[in-house]
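Hey team,

Filing this mostly as a record. A colleague (T.K.) asked me to run one chain through the structure pipeline before their review meeting, and I want the input and output archived in the tracker in case anyone asks later how it was produced. No errors, nothing strange. Just documentation.

Input sequence:
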Amino acid sequence: MSCPELRFCSAPARRRTHFCSVMTRLRTKLLLALLAVSAGLTGATLLVVRGSVRSGVRESLRGDLQSSVRTFELLEGQRQQSLSRSSEFIATLPTVRALMTTRDIPTIQDASVGLLKQSGAELLILADRTGAISAIQTDDKKLNQTQAQKFLEETYRKGDSHDWWIADGILYEVQLQPIEFGSFPAQTTIGILVLGHEINSSVADSFGNVAGSDVVFRSGDTILASTFSAQEKQELSRLRAIPAMSHGSDPVEVQIGSERFLTSGLRLSTVQGISVDLIVLKSLDKATAFLDSLNRLLIGLGIVTLLAGGALGFLIADKFTRPLSHLVSAVKALEGGDYEFPLAKRTTDEVGVVTNAFGNMRTSLKNVQKEQKELESRLRQAHKMEAVGRLAGGVAHDFNNLLTIIRGHSDLMAERPNLDEKQKHDVEQIQKAATRAVGMTRQLLAFSRMQVLQPRIVDLNAIITDMSKMLPRLIGEHIEYSFLAAAQLCLVRADPGQIEQVLMNLAVNARDAMPQGGKLIVKTCNTALDAEAAAKRPAMSSGEYEQISVSDSGCGMDEQTKAHIFEPFFTTKEIGRGTGLGLATVYGIVKQSGGFIWVESSAGRGTTFDIFLPRAKGPVSVVEAERIHRVVERGWGTILIAEDESGVRDLASQALRAAGYTVLEAKDGEEALRAAENHEGQIHLLLTDVVMPKLSGVEIAERLRSKRPEMQVLLMSGYSEYSHGNRQSAGSAMQMLQKPFSLESLTARVRQILQEKKVVVMKDPGREIR
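Output structure:
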């Protein structure tokens, strides 16, 4: 069986296929974008025009409604005047006066028929002067005498001559006129004449024709008369949301059947607690009916615009997107790691400029990738060196104990008087090897940055001036560095190495905050803070300080970041660029020096760290050189040695006993406490390793000091990272003896402490290195 033929596309063919696909997507996106813009503009135009027209129509209808209400008031005034004249005319007829003087109800009733026809009204009532109805005549016979009597009494009680009555769904507009006998001013009222017009659909139609609106006369939920059909009246009776509005009120939109109206109205009267309203309505749908044709026109224009925009977009895409799509293909190729994808011919237009820039960028990325591999190799080497440094520190710590034993015993052997020349030579070789080993361990500790440091009175300007020689190289040439020193700066008590570490950490942070370059300014000054100024910086106390300000022009920090910057392991840097211990170390060093640190920063405006260290009195400390001559003077006193390394403990005990001291030995902290408790005499000095099982040397010293305050303390350590605790005991300082030490330096240091009882404040020299 033969295998089917396999066909593989070459790389150029795959690129052409990818190029066509990218170009098609680009053209489609551009065309859709143009169509979307055209559709959006068309729709926005339609909505704006429609909204503007609707607003104009509403405003016009609002004016029409107000005009219709005013027209009704005018017509109503004319009807009222006509009704008033008719009632005055009928009331002054001699026959009416004579008729009312007879007080014969049948006669009055018969005569009222002719009077109704003569008045031209739909309602006529004759009543005596007390208001009792004598005769009533209506066209529809729906108003009986009982109802009329109640209405008349209500109107008479209100004192009105004009009123509105409702009887069995019929609305009457009535006018009251007194019938008087005699000549003015000696006239006597002998009766009351009531004339009224019925307000029905024909009256509503007449008013609607004049006002050009639909009209409704309403009492509560009952429609008394309107220009609407019977079915629409039922809809109207359910519309309780149509209030009787005053002039100037905004119209209300209502739905009657399938048609929308804008309404306004007028309160005519209140009859026995029931309101009588006039409602005027304008059809909103009829007024905006022309919008439908306008919408169709705009939609047609929009379609034409979309078609024209699509054709234009296709032409633009075909002409201008070819080089751009080729550039996109090059970008895709670069994403896959292809730095050799051919670029289009370079032109001077915008796409050509971008293509040129992309070509340069691609070349730069290729170089950066090469440099990145080199940097990764260097980084791996740096990590190895860091691990070696920590290993070196640990080895140096243990090796210091061994060197102390070797060096001490070699010194003891050298002191033997019966050594021959060969033995002296052997001891000297051991001492030389031990001395070289001591130098090597100190180099290892310096390499791993774990050497023991001591605080002293220093001049900050001098320290920063020395650091200024190194900081510019540390932060880089793209950052401008300057140091502004105070003319007469006071002294402080601090560890110079720790102050240098503070400046270095802050400089590194400033450098990372200014990747594009900027300014780093270090400034010193004398500062005195009163209570008010200290209150603005929580945790600070008033007093006189020496201030170090480190300011940068970097990206700054927001308030949320500022609240956590001094927390251990908090960092805003990407993984691998920061441990989060730099500022925590700065904070710890400043606090251990008895000072305070404050930060001022805001996003985009840089950062300023202000360090406040308390002033110190006295001359600048000078480090004394190690004594090299032999001290043969005998010592005195009782010494308690606490050391977990038996060789170091035995050596120190032997040397101190040989120097004349009484020695108590303990292999750990608890045994040291028991030895001190069992010893009845005075213990003049505690010689203890800093790191001890169960209890540290500092804890032993503090416990014993509470019971033996006169006891001096000398701490032994060769590895500052293990030097935990505060060596500032209550009321007195603890001194430090660095391992490995010689027997001569041990006895000389012990003798110095016991004879002079001089206290030197030792500060934890341990440093967290970024």
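Quick notes for T.K.: Residues 457 and 493 are 4 Å apart (CA to CA). The longest strand covers residues 259-271.
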